[in-house]
Fold these 2 entries.
Entry 1:
Amino acid sequence: MPRFDVTLAGELNLDLILYGLPAELPAERELLARHMMLTLGSSAAIVAHNLAALGCRVGFISRIGDDPLGQVAIDRLAAGGVDVSKVRRVAGESKTGLTLILQRELERNIFTYPGTIFDLTLADLDFDYLTDSRHFHLSSFYLQRGLRPQVPELFRRLKAEGLTISLDTNDDPGGKWEGGLMDVLQYVDVFLPNAREARRITGIEDLEKAAARLAEMVPLLVIKLGEQGAMALRGRERFQSDAAKVDFVDPVGAGDSFDAGFLAQYLQGADLQTCLASGNLAGAFSTTMAGGTEAFRDRECREKFWRERGY
Ligand SMILES: Nc1ncnc2c1ncn2[C@@H]1O[C@H](COP(=O)(O)OP(=O)(O)OP(=O)(O)O)[C@@H](O)[C@H]1O
Ligand SMILES: [Mg+2]
């Protein structure tokens, strides 16, 4: 029996979110926010944290700077029940990454200082640790500049050890949507883009056509549709599941929380409709509090949310 249900290698950093900023952001003015939240951020860490909250045994490898924000991030992840023994704290020019989210009335601006996110490479990964698991998840393919060229090799080796693999590319800040993704998808069991990403990756504007193209490349394609919930394609079979209704605070980390909800059921061997419903529930739950993990930290609140929806 492997030690973990899921291992991940990826980014670990905080999100600083400012709420209630004016719609316009003129330069050289002091603009006041109504609320702020400093919370665990980064796609990989949010998936890891919320998988652990949902009962999975999770091991996490990352590289952070030797700085106070890195310490807060690692403490948060550990407090969530994730094994962080292989997170490397490296002193040097790169600091732990940081994302600043400016939440305006209808839109948000997102700024990321990548720092150590770009520094993680295959050399940082303890392969025996990663393979002491049933499943491996990779987030933020395009942000992983150091690791990205080595992902095909990493996935090939993980598959040879019998792990299943899931991938969520998230956005490409460079807007190119290349980086060898096609070489990587051949090893992926579950591919979890959102609708915009599915269109960009394929270069096909029609979502159904884009989905059909991607479904030829992976055994299971799951596309996140925001307020519309999610859809999945397994070969020519198509599944759809509506989003849960919630009192919405912010969408930060909803996609990552969806991944955690989906994978928690997938790894228990649940049917696809149940996996989708679980992903939607986790994504919706994440939007009820600030950031991607605040809702999941509160166990009572989490159990109540699931219970009220019949789970
Ligand atoms: N307003 C909402 N109400 C209910 N559920 C939501 C809402 N927004 C998102 N969700 C849930 O969260 C999931 C993921 O959201 P979304 O499609 O925005 O992912 P994403 O764009 O990958 O997010 P992220 O910015 O975290 O990467 C959706 O599939 C849905 O289940
Ligand atoms: Mg996403």
Entry 2:
Amino acid sequence: MKAFISIDLEGLPFIVIPGHLSLKGSLYSEAREIATKIALIVADELNKNGFDEILIADSHGPMVNLKVDKLPEYVEIVRGNPRPVSMVAGVEEDCDVAIFLGYHSKFGTAKSTFDHTYSSRSIHKFVINGVPVSEFLLNSYAAGFYNVPVILVAGDAQLLKDDVEQHTPWVETVVFKQSLSRVSAKSPSMIKIEADLREAITKAVVNFKENKVQPLKTEEPVKASISFIVSHFADVAELLPIVERTDGLTVEYPANNIIEAYKIFQVLVYAASGVAGLLEWLQ
Ligand SMILES: [Zn+2]
């Protein structure tokens, strides 16, 4: 059996300040250690539960966060960015199950560390078929397109309550942090987290074997809508002929399926990042 893991940073335990999140951040090395330790615990427990192949998508920011020197032989890793289907790159490669680690709440969630939806620099809201998505929901739909069920999500308690329990009640969950604000959280010890993860993986694998999990699907064709944080990002997005401007900050576009919708979304996020750079240059 083959398992797919997507790991983000913002929902991981102990990661609470911006200095944890970027390549030159003051506490980035601590964040890398925590991410690597958690990924290795999960890979080890999956392997003990019969998964002889594990593919990890390193999925935060620069997407080169995990330390790779201690990866076991049964693990492969996807690193770097841009790449097709971003945070779930590789899930299409005959994976049986998917696991999301370090996931966080969507933009605008109260008291939830680093609440954002894909890009805190450009995105206010991303809506798929009328449903505002978190990264968890977007990536669950993308895995579902390839018939891969998500069996475990570990991250911020608010995300687990708001999105995971609501959309995928069959998923096992592990709380990594109870957020007190956007930049503070209470977390259990790593010893407790390791025990919780190992127990949850064992349960999740039983759920999978007993067909108690299912791939999450969204309707096709997909109607996607993006609200940007500033109007000039929408000005640029509507240059694409399939994109329609619906208000100052919002655009809509159709897509044949969630993977196409995700890819166009990525293009528009990169376009926003490009126009932000252009405006800086014009200062
Ligand atoms: Zn992230």
